[in-house]
Amino acid sequence: MTKKIKVFVDVDVLTMEHFSGIGHYTASLLKAVDLLLKRDEYNHFSITLGAPARQAHKLNRFQFENFSVRKMPISSRIVNGLKQSGKLPSIDLLYGKQVYVFPNYSSWPTLRSPVIPVIYDLSFIKYPQYGDKRNMEFLVDQVNKSVQRSRRIITISKNSKKEISEQYTLDNNKIDIVYPIIEMRDFYKRSSEEIAKIKAKYCIFGDYILFVGNLEPRKNLTTLLDAYEKLPSQIQEKYSLLLVGAKGWNDDEIHTKIQHLRMKGLRILQPISYVTDEDLPALFSGASAFSYVSIYEGFGIPPVEALACGTPTVSTNNSSLPEAVGKGAEMVKATNSTEIAHAIEKVLRKPLDADIGYRQARQYDALSAATSFLKSLEEAA
Description:
There is one protein chain. By secondary structure, the chain is α/β, with parallel strands linked by helices. 41% of the residues lie in helices and 15% in strands. It is built from 16 helices and 13 strands. It has helices at residues 21-36, 76-85, 91-95, 123-126, 133-149, 158-168, 192-201, 221-230, 233-238, 252-263, 280-286, 301-308, 321-325, 337-349, 354-362, 366-380, and strands at residues 5-10, 45-52, 67-72, 99-102, 115-117, 153-155, 175-177, 207-212, 239-244, 268-269, 289-292, 313-316, 330-332. β6, α6 (158-168) and β7 form a beta-alpha-beta unit. α8 crosses α14. The longest helix has 17 residues, at 133-149. The two termini are 16 Å apart.
């Protein structure tokens, strides 16, 4: 008889008002795990989701069937304050001995229970200038403590695994990769009718080159704007640059650059309202090219989603991005706006084979992610 494995997942990230990339990753993974738990070979898992009591009702929208929910008595703000002061109690004193998973970098202490934090990347160490100073300092301190407490660590790419291993002097075998899920049932080439409808919804007209992501310095948007400015005038006249994303940290320079280019007559577009997850595939599908020139990524989901939708893609060749996009995208240096401009022009004139990008995106499937996650839990237990 297989031994029962009890697991507690802190899902505070699923209840936050701003649903971040970490929230999307966690939600997709747990949906996949929820389906897998219906199989007899996984019935030895008993998984509880822990959420702040006042926010726990927000989990109802996910319609999970095979998890129980535990309402946690204190808010995430208080939890983080107690973490910083070193006064947070051991979580297994509250909820008993089991495997504890923390999907947002930092963990609670435990007395006798294995801990698995999810550490997506080391941007807070490698590029602290691109984030909020207090948050970066919090992560430096708390991730170090999380690593020391951990039985295993989950990350999202080979590059992140290598960096975590080197930074914290860890055995590679202690770090498990659970890739993000690219849901091919959602991300596929949409019809011209659907594309036209979604473009009209957000007041987007004509052909466009697309960017999707937070408007923040790490996404290297000023360099992308410089690259767009260097494109031949006939391309600028035919294609606008569409920026889709939420407001990020330290974005004054980005907005100043946008206004400067608009005053020069260049078409830098932004949707009139927040773009929903349901509408993104149509905007990917309608783009003539997708450009993602980040300085650093733990994985890089948007360019893979673009490949899934058959959109010609330009990506920078740093961090995990070559791993994420494989041979499906045109690769460039993040610091070279001229090279980026040439790459955009190249994919507009002669796109790479869309089948290569499609096959690359298809490998990041739900079943593989869910089975990797459950294997990590078994190793920890």
